[in-house]
Amino acid sequence: MKIAFGVCSLGIGHATRSAPIIAKLVEEGHEVVIITYGRAADILKKEFPYLKVYEIPDFPIQYPERAHQFIPYIFMNSNKIARSIFKAHKNFLGLHEEQNFDLIISDSRFDVFHRNVPSFLIIHQLRIMVPLHILRAGILVYNAYISRFFKKILVPDFRENSLSGDMSHNLKIIDGNKIEYIGPLSPFKHRDLPRDIDVLISISGPEPQRTLFERKIMKSIDGLDGNIVITLGKPDEKIRNDDLKIYSYLTMDEREEIMNRSKLIISRSGYSTIMDLYAIGGKAMFVPTPGQPEQEYLARYLERRGIAGYMTQENLDLREIISRAGNYSGFKGKYDTRISVENAIRVITEWS
């Protein structure tokens, strides 16, 4: 079959978690065409140099510097966001006329579907955890409306003991029969390696918050004991520090190895990162990206469950956050995400 695979371009997590499903589809002999944009496109081009990648812009969201600016930003730009989705959908329909897809899979891209072609949506955030309940309900209603155009909604989480909490559970508006919980998706796996890195600090996310996070880390890193490794998540950035191991960018294989070697990981609380940690295992402490309600909710949710703690970027103190890590159980790890991939393929096959 010729399969269109849409991937959201907000961050790189959608690209990395989609990679195992894309690889499995290719392994089964399908022709996969990727639709994405920006850094996500760069990553998938490197991972699958033999596949066609079409760049169609999706959400024009730039996260504000301060959390309280998020809701005004959404209100002020709602028309722009809606227009961009309709424009992207029109562009996709044009691509479909050219390519004649047999099947469509979309990771969090509401514009990649066709009424007359079996379409499937991969998404973990059916309820966006914004502070205003009326806005949260409105987004849920919109997601319920959009879900009508997809045969099934594939949630990369468990039905019980979930990693995403209310973001993808306890949904009263969306038809529950459409939702399939396939399990976490990650390109990583647990490896039995010596835990010789005391702290891995992973700096990532959209600008300007990525750079603000980096500056906070660099100001408070001096004097920390142990083997400290920092990843910047930006290929073109170079920082020299003879006392630290700093990587501007890591490939997926390199990142898997370093995460498996780390006793503690300090990172953003993006859902893809959480799924990676669930697959690999180990201790984690989170610094949610300011202005991203999803990350703020997930950090609080996992702290309530006793799995991992968090600290706001504004109040970040590396010594304190490291000392508190022992209060949490960490992620057990060793989950084989091939199970989730098989679940996804099974559902898609049954409903195509």
From TrEMBL:
It comes from the Archaea. Pfam families: Glyco_tran_28_C, Glyco_trans_1_3. Residues 240-322 form the Glycosyl transferase family 28 C-terminal domain. GO terms for molecular function: hexosyltransferase activity. Belongs to the glycosyltransferase 28 family. This is Glycosyltransferase 28 domain protein. It comes from Aciduliprofundum boonei (strain DSM 19572 / T469).
